[in-house]
Amino acid sequence: MVKAKGPKKEKKGKKEKDPFEDVSPMGLLKREAAERLGLVEKIKSGGWGSLSAAENGRVGALVNKLKKETHPQ
Q: What residue spans define the domains of the chain?
C-alpha cells in the first residue's frame, strides 16, 4: 500500500548569506586570494561551492603563499 503524499511544503526562505562575511584572518586571506584570481563575482553569485576543484586549488595555494608572506617563520 502506497501512502498518498500531501502537497510539498515550501521551505522557509533562507536568508542569502554573503560569502565574504567571514572576517577571521583566514577568511580575509581567502577573500584576498579570490580578488587576485578574479573570482569574486563568481563567488558572490554562487557562493564558494560554485568554484571548480581547480579554482579551489588555486585559492588554497594562494592563501598558503599569502600566509607565509604575512607570517614568516
A: 25-70
